Amino acid sequence: AxxxxxxxxxxxxxxxxxxxxxxxxxxxDPSYGLFWYKQPSSGEMIFLxxxxxxxxxxxTEGRYSLNFxxxxxxxxxxxxxxxxxxxxxxxxxMRGLYNDMRFGAGTRLTVKP
Amino acid sequence: SAVISQKPSRDICQRGTSxxxxxxxxxxxxxxxxxxxxxxxxxxxxxxxxxxxEATYESGFVIDKFPISRPNLTFSTLxxxxxxxxxxxxxxxxxxxxxxxEQYFGPGTRLTVT
Lengths: 113, 114
What we know:
The structure holds two protein chains of two kinds.
Chain A: E1 3-5, E2 10-14, E3 19-21, E4 24-26, E5 33-39, E6 46-52, E7 60-61, E8 64-69, E9 74-79, E10 88-95, E11 101-103, E12 107-112
Parallel strand pairs in A: 2-12
Antiparallel strand pairs in A: 1-4, 3-9, 5-6, 5-10, 7-8, 8-9, 10-11, 10-12
Chain B: E1 4-7, E2 10-13, E3 19-25, E4 31-37, E5 43-50, E6 56-57, E7 68-72, E8 75-80, E9 89-97, E10 102-105, E11 109-113
Parallel strand pairs in B: 2-11
Antiparallel strand pairs in B: 1-3, 3-8, 4-5, 4-9, 5-6, 7-8, 9-10, 9-11
């Protein structure tokens, strides 16, 4: 069975600083994808970044980067130069061979001015 | 990416009634997914809906309670049947674009059952 773990219920970061949101996973699928989504208070799910299990390089999208350590089964999200608008819930998710997407419990990020 | 719309955006329903949620995409997609997000919780996959085949339900979800239709490559519906207050959640549809690499979500339907 697949499992996604986010151990940080809440995180605080000062505006303009970088922050790392932790995510570990467990799967027996040989191929899988890892995702991060942002959910602001409006409730929409915003796709941020994707990492394939066979990708050699860490994914990056603007201020977002995914620190993928396959042997440790971790896929941490790094947000650089935090902005007030980054305050939201962040979900890590994994999709396996059978297309079932599993989400972690989420981390609530608060950016302080 | 894709533009995904859901109707209704929110509703308040009486116990024992049913509500059908619509999901419309602006491009043809093979795979569509339905999720539930209970208050303060993470997302849980209800079912996968591929055009031309029966929906595949996750453990804990059954077709009698959550019937799904997928009549074409741009549209799907999820019905929440015989509702109880425990069904109060946000229901989200999502679509796969470009293989398993990108999955985008609709704005969600916020359902309250009284």
